[in-house]
Inverse folding.
């Protein structure tokens, strides 16, 4: 039997293509969401079904066709057509594309969309705010557990309340509404469940290159201790960061590790925990220097300062002030599967870390010694740095 999968555009018949309109006219029976069926109630037999399995089950029971399945937007853009292609494999399926919400919305805003990052939070879990954080332009489908105002509230919480956001609801219908403002402004409004959103971030988190190893001279330091470039690059590689991770940097100092982690996790969040006032000031300056809007400076001492932080995926321990065991207990209480990397320079800390990390999954201990050269007149001398031990391991889920 012949089955048409018809992209309906925004829903109003005016946004349908001529091809789609002709296909609808040729089908005595139409199946789809009630909203899409409304214009054809008097002229067709309309069957309100939404789930792909329900639609396929209904079609299998029919003897005559063709049958038209109405799908919102474009059949290739987060559409139910993907599932139906598999379910209707025994039929002659003709797919008719439509105007997507992305294309329609950007046209209404008088803007192009070829450089837009596209995500969907409609009926699924997606880190939309993380995508906005790392992209200059982001389009999102919203609905279900994630509404447009929720995204704006989270942007504001992360310090991105100034990002320009446009929200569209009931697109193509007489009561269509399109609103543009800052995330902070739109966070106070309410929007329809099935809305679309375009966010423009003038200062996204962008890594200057694909590997860790920013030169030490790139950071403001003062007299605050800093994890040096060679050790930092190795420690971060052992963290095994992914772009969406939540990271704690405990004893952050100048923030050299925090910044590297923030650049490596553009869709994630990094919490730099530090107790010294001078270091906190440098942390803030280095955060601004590298435009790492996903880095949050947390004043205080661990483990107390960690209690209210979200569960981490990764933790770097650069300074624990003798509280290593208590900090590890708290980390694994928050996330039993967290991966932790710890650096140590004193024998006392090395002994304690060796004892505590021995029980972790994939426990590893490496001692690193770096020697740099420095110029003395026309000669170059070897300048040995302090040896550093790097411990790494994971908890068990």
């Amino acid at each position: 039997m012949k089955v048409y999968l018809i992209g309906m555009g925004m829903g109003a018949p005016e946004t349908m293509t001529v091809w789609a309109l002709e296909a609808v006219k040729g089908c005595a029976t139409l199946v789809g969401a009630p909203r899409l069926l409304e214009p054809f109630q008097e002229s067709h037999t309309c069957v309100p079904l939404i789930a792909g399995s329900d639609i396929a089950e209904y079609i299998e029971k029919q003897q005559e066709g063709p049958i038209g399945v109405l799908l919102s937007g474009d059949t290739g853009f987060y559409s139910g057509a993907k599932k139906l292609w598999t379910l209707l494999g025994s039929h002659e399926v003709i797919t008719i594309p439509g105007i997507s919400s992305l294309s329609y919305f950007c046209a209404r805003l008088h803007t192009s969309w070829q450089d837009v990052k596209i995500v969907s939070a409609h009926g699924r879990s997606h880190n939309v705010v993380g995508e906005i954080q790392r992209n200059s332009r982001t389009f999102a489908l919203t609905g279900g557990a994630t509404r447009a105002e929720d995204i704006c509230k989270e942007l504001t919480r992360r310090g991105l309340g100034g990002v320009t956001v446009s929200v569209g609801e009931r697109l193509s219908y007489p009561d269509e509404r399109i609103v543009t403002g800052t995330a902070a402004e739109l966070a106070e409004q309410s929007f329809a469940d099935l809305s679309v959103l375009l966010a423009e971030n003038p200062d996204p988190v962008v890594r200057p290159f694909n590997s860790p190893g920013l030169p030490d001279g790139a950071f403001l330091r003062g007299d605050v201790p800093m994890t040096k470039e060679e050790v930092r690059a190795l420690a971060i590689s052992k963290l095994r960061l992914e772009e969406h991770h939540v990271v704690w940097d405990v004893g952050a100092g100048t923030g050299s590790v925090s910044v590297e982690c923030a650049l490596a996790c553009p869709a994630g969040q990094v919490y730099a925990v530090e107790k010294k006032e001078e270091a906190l000031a440098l942390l803030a300056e280095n955060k601004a220097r590298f435009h790492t809007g996903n880095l949050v400076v947390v004043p205080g001492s661990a483990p107390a300062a960690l209690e209210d932080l979200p569960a981490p995926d990764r933790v770097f321990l650069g300074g624990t002030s003798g509280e290593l065991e208590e900090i590890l207990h708290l980390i694994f209480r928050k996330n039993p599967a967290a991966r932790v990397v710890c650096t140590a320079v004193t024998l006392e800390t090395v002994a304690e870390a060796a004892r505590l990390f021995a029980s972790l999954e994939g426990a590893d201990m490496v001692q690193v010694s770096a020697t740099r050269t420095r110029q003395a007149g026309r000669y170059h001398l070897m300048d040995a740095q302090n040896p550093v031990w790097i411990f790494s391991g994971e908890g068990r889920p």
Summary: The mean pLDDT is 91. The domain at 2-99 is CATH 3.40.1010.10 (Cobalt-precorrin-4 Transmethylase; domain 1).
